[in-house]
Amino acid sequence: MAETIQKVVSEITRGTRHPVYLLHGDELLSKDGAKAIVDALVPPEQQTLNVEVITEDRDLANLPVRLRTLPLLGGSKVVVVHDSKAFVSKQNLGDLTKKSLQAWQAGDAERALRLFLQAVGAAGEGEGFLERAGRGELSDPEWERVLGMEENPEAEPWLREIAGRAVADGAAIPEATGAGLAGIYEDAIQRGIPGNASLVLTAEVVDQRRALFKRISAAGVVIDCGVRTGRTGETQMNPDRAREKIREMVAAAGKTIAGDAITSVVERTGFSMRALESEVEKILLYVGTRPAITPADVMEVLSNSRDSGIFDMTNALCDRDAGRALRALRGLLAQREQIPPTLGRIASEIRTLIFARGALEQKLEGALDPGMAYGTFQSRVLPRLQKKVEGDDGSAAKLLEMHPFRAFNLLKGATRYSLSELVRALTAIHETDLALKSSGSPEDLLMERLLISIIGGE
Prior knowledge:
Layout: E1 2-3, H1 5-13, E2 20-25, H2 27-41, H3 47-50, E3 51-54, H4 56-59, H5 63-68, E4 77-81, H6 93-105, H7 109-122, H8 127-134, H9 140-146, H10 156-169, H11 178-191, E5 197-203, H12 211-219, E6 221-225, H13 239-252, E7 256-257, H14 259-268, H15 273-287, E8 292-293, H16 295-302, H17 306-319, H18 322-334, H19 339-363, H20 374-386, H21 395-400, H22 404-414, H23 419-438, H24 443-456
Helix pairs in contact: 1-2, 6-7, 7-10, 8-10, 11-12, 13-14, 13-15, 14-16, 15-16, 17-18, 17-19, 18-24, 19-22, 19-23, 23-24
């Protein structure tokens, strides 16, 4: 059954415990949740003898023995396994590589490498693949078969850097052992976990079609610790979970934070709760002894980050604000951000605006109040996007795959452009790409002209 961490901990304190707990999704939330469950199952003073944290690659073979070995002084026994790969399959390679890309964008190279190597191993690839990826020589079929995505300029720097680091470090590629690992867990659950013992697992990526996932759902508890809805193509952290975490950290520091400042943090933070915590800690250090955090504090601390610069540029495109877009672009170039991925992000934003414009025309009669509150959008507009209409080309469906907050912002942006302007923007991007490769003109000038052309509607 699927539950929340708070409910599970409450059940344990009332005497209800389960043989197995699986927490999946955001790495930090999963591990924090696992700790809360372990603390509820075993008093802290008994954990040295009663709790075992084992490594899946090295210790899993004797899992049944560990679960059945009674604690020396009695009490409950808990075995914990973090970062399980038993739920990975070829069908969710795209989830692994997406999380790797997001970790790299958030500056967590170690986690990005670990997730990338898991995907390579699950796909059955070896060192030759890593070498080709590091040189940028992968074919289109390899991108789709191994990485679960189409080749795109935005992902190229990530792939080259992560694969190149793997080759340089001689990193070991995990064997494609998902099914083998799953078999050990399934066998332990089928044999029966003793009544005074529990198995606690965490995993970043799970294929819910796996028999092991279904078995745990039936016999134990599954907790979704994702910071997104899990929909395909979603790129933004769940705003409600992010806001809750920000308020919690700020309150723990004895400070207050303005609502606008919370929104700025959410919009400019990376793709994981760990990245969010890191950014909030920077803000807390910046404000020092001052009791309140303002939007200006957030802008000052986060405006120099790579991700916030890209966000500011794409957000300015949505708002059709040339001045802000140019300032953001110049900030990225000052940080020596590479041009191809920047151009790729612009192209990606224009494509999503085209989907939004299509949904606007087909489902919303071409109109949306840009001043509409997000809550109103959720209650009144989202149901209209879900209705079937004649001539529907699937644009609304693509928006519905994203987080509603992302769809909300895209639809507002789409009200500022006509479909013909957005199509011309894609042509301008293609022409700029050719000019960057062949004209010899200054790259910064070409990129600035492109932004002015798109926003000005030329």
